[in-house]
Amino acid sequence: MNITQKVNDAPLVYEVVSQTRGVQQSDFDDGVEDPIDSEEVYELIRNINDPEHPLTLEQLHVTNREHIYVDDCSNRVLIEFTPTIPHCSMATLIGLCIRVRLLRSLPERFKVDIRIREGSHQSESQVNKQLNDKERVAAALENTYLLDVVNQCLATAA
C-alpha cells in the first residue's frame, strides 16, 4: 500500500460547524451516571486525519453525527461512514482508524460495529467483513507499518 499515491486527488472539502452540547454541571459530578451518546462518539472520531489528505474525516464528510448510533444500555455502537469515492482503496484503513480510536477511548463493555454506508462503495460487503472480524483487525494491528499509519491518522485526533 502506497499512501503517497492518491486515489482521489481533489476531494470535496466541507466547512466544519461546531455543534457541541455545552458543559453541564453534572459533567463534573462523579456521582452522576453519564451515558455515552452519539455526540460523544462523534467527538472522538471527527478529527481523525484522512490517510490521503491533510484533512479530517469530518471535513471530508466521511463521518457525521447522523450516522452514529449508540445504545448505552445495550453497550452497542454502530458507526457508518462514507468514503469520498466509490472505489476508495483507503476505506478499510479509514475504518481501522475509527475502530482503533474507539478501542482506545470507549469503555471495554461496548461492542463496536463499523460499516460503510450502504451503496457508497463498490466493495462495501468485503470491507465491512474485514472491519468487524476480530482476527483480521488483530492481524492488521500486528503489522508495524499499518499501525504506524493508523497512529499518524490518530495523531491530531482530540
From TrEMBL:
InterPro entries named among the record's database cross-references: FSCA_dom_sf, MIP18, MIP18-like
Gene3D superfamilies: 6.10.250.1280, Fe-S cluster assembly (FSCA) (3.30.300.130)
Listed Pfam families: FeS_assembly_P (PF01883)
BP GO annotations: chromosome segregation; protein maturation
Domain MIP18 family-like residue range list: 39-113
Record's protein name: MIP18 family-like domain-containing protein
Domain of life of the organism encoding this protein: Eukaryota
Protein family membership: Belongs to the MIP18 family.
Organism this protein belongs to: Coemansia thaxteri
GO cellular component: intracellular protein-containing complex; iron-sulfur cluster assembly complex
Keywords: Chromosome partition
